Amino acid sequence: MNDFDRKYWQNRYLEKKIGWNIGYISTPIKAYVNQLEDKNLNILIPGGGNSYEAEFLWKSGFKNTYILDFAKQPLENFKKRVSGFPNEQLLNHDFFESKGEFDLIIEQTFFCALNPKLRTDYVKQYFNF
Ligand SMILES: C[S@@+](CC[C@H](N)C(=O)[O-])C[C@H]1O[C@@H](n2cnc3c(N)ncnc32)[C@H](O)[C@@H]1O
């Protein structure tokens, strides 16, 4: 099994081998976001990729939405697609080395994309936010 490292993911975007990319916010996440009332929530989307949920959140008035991905390409794609989204809310970091304070973390096909040996660290990492 490869290590699913930064280079691996960046290449998947460059080669457009992104079969997971649905191109819109998933229906359950959309329904969840639509019942949120506090638009000031600090929201993190780890392993966000092209992040259609961040686009939906941003356009719905959740201005404190952050996307974290260690591959640069999807963040570049996002910048081109969603005008006005602040650069400083595009976090080009490794999830496992990140810190911050968030009220809510939303993720789509991130956990399932990690090497299974990282699953315990994944859970522990949530306590750093
Ligand atoms: C299967 S893709 C899902 C992307 C997006 N959430 C979606 O549903 O379209 C997994 C994403 O996690 C990112 N990723 C994997 N390991 C990561 C890590 N350690 N830190 C940050 N991002 C990571 C990859 O670059 C990739 O964009």
Radius of gyration: 14 Å
Class by SSE composition:
alpha/beta
The small-molecule ligands in this entry are:
S-adenosylmethionine
Beta-strand content: 5-15%
Say which CATH homologous superfamily is assigned: Vaccinia Virus protein VP39
Total domain modules: 1
What's the short version?
The chain has 129 residues and is an alpha/beta fold.
Textual characterization of the structure:
The protein has 129 residues and is of the alpha/beta class. The protein contains five helices and four strands. Strands 3-2-1-4 form a four-stranded parallel sheet, covered by helices on one side. Strand 1, helix 3 (52-59) and strand 2 form a beta-alpha-beta unit. The protein starts with 5 loop residues before the first helix and ends with a helix. It binds S-adenosylmethionine. S-adenosylmethionine binds next to loops.
Topology diagram in text:
Blueprint: H1 6-14, H2 27-34, E1 43-46, H3 52-59, E2 65-68, H4 72-81, E3 90-91, E4 104-105, H5 119-125
Parallel strand pairs: 1-2, 1-4, 2-3
This protein binds S-adenosylmethionine.
S-adenosylmethionine binds next to loops.
Features:
129 residues; alpha/beta; Rossmann fold; four-stranded parallel beta sheet; 4 strands; binds S-adenosylmethionine
